[in-house]
Amino acid sequence: MRITQISIDGLFGVFNYAIPFNLEDRITIIHGPNGSGKTALLRLLNGLFNSHTSELRAIPFNWFQVDFDNRSSIKVSKENEGDEQSSLKFIPISINGASKPFILPKLSNKNLEEAFPLGMIEQVIPGLERIGPSTWRLIGSNETLYLEDIFDRYSSLLPSIRLKQEKDPQWLRNLKKDVQVRFIQTQRLLSFSDTSRSRRYDPPLPPAPAVENYSKDLAGQIRLKLTEYAELSQSLDRTFPARLVRENSLDRLADTELRNRFEALEEKRSRLTVAGFLDKENKDDFQVSEQMDDQTKGVFSVYVKDVEQKLGVFDDLLNKVDLLKKVVNQRFRYKQMDISKDAGFVFTTSNGQPLPPSGLSSGEQHELVLLYEMLFKMPAEALILIDEPELSLHVAWQKQFLGDLQQITELSSFDVLLSTHSPQIIHDRWDLTVELKGPIQ
């Protein structure tokens, strides 16, 4: 299910917007001046579909609606109760299985204290000093903050919490499962890993450069594919004699097809070697001969089909790696990127010196992280939210970004909603844009 439009009333008490999505091109760009609500709209979408209700509570609006390509919608409204807090009302419109709206009550100190240990707040939010059971002082300004204030102001730094009464009805759970949304935020050079945390509220691990983590991640993905390749190879090799007897006279390839498919396999093997998946082997210069007898052609037909199946396990990952290397090596000056199944990203300077991924410039790291997240971290048919892709990028790279993005969407089949200040990012594709302008008159 794809999103066709988002609409909002009273964003920050100032703005009303309706933003139709470009379903054919799969890319929609929102642009406008600072303070017009571009990032807030991305945060609201992320909050709605990834159960970050703190985002929905923290951003002021009257109602927010998302329309889908099956003519259904979901509307979220804020039910004010005479103070700064408000309940959230989720209203299904023509959604299968939806019987009635779902209401989340306003927050209170009591249910917030039940949701997570208060002692973790100083660990994840810098500059706070606890001065009471549920009161903190903001160092520098001496401002006193209560728990509700911290939840509203710093919700993006706190873990996504689910209060006891925040149990989604089945129709809402199904909707969130059908519509996958991922958010690439402006802070993307550092990544936070929780793989070694045994409990939800263990102290957070220190951040690490995202390029280093993604380098390890890519190496891990290649090793998984190599394991799959090895297991399939063992299975096919074990059954090869029986299949040879069974298929030799039944499904023999014609001479021209046999030659073409063998040449295609050699080309793919070469791509896999260049991409860093397979080790380089000595080429035996074997050629498919027209003088082969029928029995030999039958054996070779089974062999070719087996190798096609074996190497086929790499297809998706190989296409993504090829595109990543192509874009990076076109953009980065004075350095070359290769891929290793052991190390992931391998960079070499123009004078032959190795360079760790964290040694790249800020702009190069931003470019690499954006490309990697879109190519390797996003599910197909999802909606990808990108906030300010132009950060730290040279003007020439900004102009090339949409072209790169279009290649990625064609390969990975997802929709994109991005916010930008940069006319260079838009370049010559103003047909993809929606301008956010002007407060309510």
Your description of this structure?
This protein is of the alpha+beta class and 441 residues long. The protein has a domain at 208-360. 40% of the residues lie in helices and 21% in strands. It contains 13 helices and 19 strands. A hairpin with a 3-residue loop joins strand 14 (335-340) and strand 15. Helix 7 (210-247) runs antiparallel to helix 9 (294-312), helix 8 (255-274) runs parallel beside helix 9 (294-312) and helix 10 (315-331) packs antiparallel against helix 12. The relative contact order is 0.14. Mean pLDDT is 85; it is low at 194-201.
Principal-axis shape: elongated
Number of helices: 13
The low-confidence runs, each spanning 5 or more residues with pLDDT under 50, are: 194-201
- Estimated share of beta-strand residues: 15-25%
Largest sheet: 6 strands, antiparallel
Indicate the structural class.
Answer: alpha+beta
How confident is the prediction overall: mean pLDDT? 85
Using only C-alpha atoms, the radius of gyration works out to 27 Å
Tell me how many strands there are. 19
Distance between the termini: 35 Å
Strand order of the largest sheet: 2-1-4-5-6-7
The level of helicity is 25-40%
